[in-house]
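does this look right to u?? magnesium ion version
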Amino acid sequence: MPVPAPDRNAQATPASGNRVALFCTDTASDLAKLAEALRAGQLVAIPTETVYGLAASALDEAACRRIFEVKGRPLLDPLIVHVPDRAAGERLARFDGRAVRLAEAFWPGPLTLVLPKRAAVPAIVTAGKPTVALRSPAHPAARRLLAAAGIPLAAPSANPFGYISPTTAQHVAESLGTRIPWILDGGPCSVGIESTIVALAPDRPARILRPGSISREELSEALGEAVEAAPEEAKSGAAVEAPGMLARHYSPATPAVLFAHGALPAARRGEAAVFQHRREHALDGIEGSSVFWFSESGDPADTARNLYALLRRLDSLGFTRIHIERAAHSPLGDTINDRLRRAATG
Ligand code: AMP
Ligand code: MG
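got this back:
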């Protein structure tokens, strides 16, 4: 394998030509090189089952600072730390009985727990907060890399701040390929939307800070007690609780407008019409090249898996507006609508 850009702080540009991210796979030799790069403070884009992450050693303050620089992410927006298992998590945060129950029920998987942090976690990771967000990813390549590196990995989504999250290695290369040395290609993400984030503060009910594919019902069932719902919009109190949950996020550059489920208007010239799932009648009277759907089957899990890839593709096709049908109401449909609302606001 060729050697990456030696200076991790170099601002690689397309003009520099030779400094583009190298694609790796989860072979033993590639993983050993990536583990070494992470231990040396370099950034590696990694696949997870939710979206691709931009990873650095969570114990290396300078490396974590570089994540914020590369993404253009404000320093007040804390990072999620990825660990192989609860034992590794216990070294970074204090797990109460509820945290143990949720980790046992949903780890490895798309659940992030916000817990009281221990001193080992640098302040830059948590934006100075006394809590840290932890997750154990299920993606096999991420797990092998965590095992090889032997360190916790801070990893926000591997996209420029505010843009649509990446769900393939190619998406990462398109927007960050000249700014990072390594991309671990683990194929398309199986879930496709970011993890459910749950805050477990002492003496307070469990609260969802960000909805994800694991529903409030599933969490309540595993805990045996009620879980508070995610705040509708990141206003006032909610903005303080989960600083990255901005009203506009995950957004295409093309203006996107949402319509109620079943109420998508016919696309006019230059506009894209995006249905939740395949509708045979959709093509009647409309220019076929401007009609799309997130899913063939209508299963919201398919919509979630395809959501960001289609939004990215639509953003590259030169439409003046993107009209999007909301998902039907269901636990996952509501999460999809949360992401669509953030893609469309503004
Ligand atoms: P991302 O890594 O881009 O998926 O964003 C992670 C999100 O997790 C942040 O934007 C916050 O909303 C949330 N988060 C991370 N750490 C904390 C924390 N200590 N307290 C509350 N929310 C957090
Ligand atoms: Mg993100």
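The radius of gyration is 20 Å. idk if thats expected tbh
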